[in-house]
């Protein structure tokens, strides 16, 4: 049962990560997809960050659930010899690292939300004054 639960959590994590990538690309300031308003773009990027954080938490839950079950089986008194029991493999450590990096990346995307006092302001680049231009 724990393997099926871990598998379901990993599939959910993959789907959330996929949709997080799509939403984050739409929310980037360098893309022309979607709205031209920078406030709306930053809110879309925050939504992508939330999807990444959820994806990382699902991965962390799946890997930790499996590690807990492996630890329980290892220390349980059973008729299985010690050399035939499961041990932590490198995939668990890769999973924990991937979950950590996904949560970190999602939280950085969530930090791209504009502050409340500047939400209505838009900044425009000022052109040079006409006296500074040289005509040839």
Can you characterise this structure?
It is a multi-pass membrane protein. The chain crosses the membrane at residues 6-26, 46-68, 88-111. By secondary structure, this protein is an all-alpha fold. The chain is 62% helix and 0% strand. It has helices at residues 2-27, 38-75, 90-110.
Summarize the structure.
This is Claudin-19. With 136 residues, the protein is mainly α. The chain is built from three helices and no strands.
Low-confidence stretches: none
Reported for the largest beta sheet, the result is: none
Total domains, how many? Answer: 1
Helix/sheet category: mainly alpha
Q: In the CATH scheme, what's the topology name?
A: Butyryl-CoA Dehydrogenase, subunit A, domain 3
Please report the total strand number as a whole number.
0
Radius of gyration: 24 Å
| N to C succession of SSEs | HHH
CATH architecture assignment name: Up-down Bundle
The pLDDT mean sits at: 80
Q: How much strand content do the residues show?
A: under 5%
């Amino acid at each position: 049962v724990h393997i099926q639960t871990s598998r379901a959590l990993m599939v959910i994590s993959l789907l959330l990560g996929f949709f997080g990538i799509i939403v984050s690309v739409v929310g980037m300031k360098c893309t022309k997809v979607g709205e031209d308003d920078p406030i709306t773009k930053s809110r879309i990027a925050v939504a992508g960050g939330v999807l990444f954080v959820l994806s990382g938490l699902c991965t962390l839950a799946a890997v930790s659930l499996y590690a807990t079950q492996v630890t329980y089986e290892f220390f349980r008194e059973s008729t299985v010899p010690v050399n035939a029991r499961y041990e932590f493999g490198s995939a668990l450590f890769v999973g924990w690292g991937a979950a950590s990096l996904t949560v970190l990346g999602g939280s950085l995307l969530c930090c791209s939300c504009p502050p409340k006092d500047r939400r209505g302001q838009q900044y425009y680049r000022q052109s040079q004054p006409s006296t500074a231009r040289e005509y040839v």
